[in-house]
């Protein structure tokens, strides 16, 4: 059975009518690539529940989640702005993923420690974000997402501000977490190198539609005009 099914989903943004259809398997890593304004972030927002479609359905593991709020879906999202609070420690920033008021019991604190260990930040619990490197701050944001223990991870350009080496490091971390925790991952990116490195399959979007979906290397070497124009080939 298809794990995530985007079934005839329609959404209007400004004057563009977007129409999405996509089928994603369990524990798959899918990249979503395409030019600015193609609808990449909108597609993730519809899956995550941050936008409501005009028609169509979002199905996850056979359940229609189209009308469910983000917190009711088996999904967690990580955006480019990871929103760490400068006055809170690493552990507290991660703990916000469990309780916005940070009223954490011993079980919650153990879960925070587990999440920090997952991303290689054990021992940095009491540091402030300003005392961390850019990569470490990104790891805190990833730990907060992993802490929720949702099976689907949506990554909306979270590494766009990082240099190539650090981007690769973060993608390697996500791949490790995917394998370790059985995650299904969707990543929007402007950089085809990200897709080639991490994604088994890639969806290429243009003008609010999925125009090509398949093996990453085949999609990015396609002779379709939209792909060629985007890659400059």
Which structural traits does this protein have?
233 residues, alpha/beta, Rossmann fold, six-stranded mixed β-sheet, 10 strands
What features would you describe in this structure?
This protein is of the alpha/beta class. The chain has a domain of 153 residues: Rossmann fold (3-Layer(aba) Sandwich). 34% of the residues lie in helices and 26% in strands. The chain contains 8 helices and 10 strands. It has a 6-stranded mixed β-sheet with strand order 6-7-8-3-9-10, with helices on both faces. The protein has a 4-stranded antiparallel β-sheet with strand order 2-1-4-5. Strand 4 and strand 5 form a beta hairpin. The chain is globular. It starts with a strand and ends with a helix. The mean pLDDT is 90.
Distance between the first and last residues' Cα: 37 Å
DSSP summary: helix tally: 8
Whole-angstrom Rg = 18 Å
Which percent band covers the strand fraction? 25-35%
Helix/strand/pairing category:
alpha/beta
Query: What's the total count of β strands?
Result: 10
Summarize model confidence as the mean pLDDT: 90
> Uncertain regions: pLDDT < 50 for 5+ in a row?
none
Q: How does the major sheet shape up?
A: 6 strands, mixed
Strand order of the largest sheet: 6-7-8-3-9-10
Do you know the CATH topology of the domain at 4-74 and 150-231?
Rossmann fold
SSE layout and pairings?
Elements: E1 4-13, E2 16-24, E3 29-33, H1 40-48, E4 55-60, E5 63-64, E6 75-79, H2 90-95, H3 106-118, H4 134-147, E7 152-156, H5 164-181, E8 184-189, H6 192-198, E9 201-206, E10 209-215, H7 216-220, H8 225-231
């Amino acid at each position: 059975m298809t794990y995530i099914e985007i079934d005839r989903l329609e959404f209007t943004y400004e004057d563009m009518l977007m129409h999405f259809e996509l089928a994603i398997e369990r524990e798959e890593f899918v990249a979503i690539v395409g030019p600015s304004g193609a609808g990449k972030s909108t597609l993730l927002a519809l899956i995550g529940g941050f936008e409501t479609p005009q028609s169509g359905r979002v199905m996850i593991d056979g359940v229609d989640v189209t009308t469910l709020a983000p917190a009711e879906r088996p999904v967690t999202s990580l955006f480019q702005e990871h929103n760490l609070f400068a006055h809170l420690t690493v552990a507290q920033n991660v703990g916000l993923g469990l309780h916005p008021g940070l009223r954490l019991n011993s079980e919650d604190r153990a879960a925070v420690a587990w999440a920090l260990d997952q991303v290689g930040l054990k021992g940095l619990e009491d540091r402030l974000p300003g005392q961390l490197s850019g990569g470490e701050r990104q790891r805190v944001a990833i730990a907060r997402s992993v802490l929720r223990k949702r099976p689907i991870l949506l990554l909306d350009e979270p590494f766009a501000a990082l240099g190539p080496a650090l981007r690769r490091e973060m993608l390697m971390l996500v791949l490790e977490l995917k394998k370790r925790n059985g995650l299904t991952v969707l990543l929007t990116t402007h950089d085809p190198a990200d897709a080639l490195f991490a994604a088994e399959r890639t969806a290429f979007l243009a003008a609010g539609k999925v125009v090509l979906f398949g093996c990453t290397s085949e999609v990015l070497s396609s002779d379709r005009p939209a792909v060629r124009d985007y890659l400059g080939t």
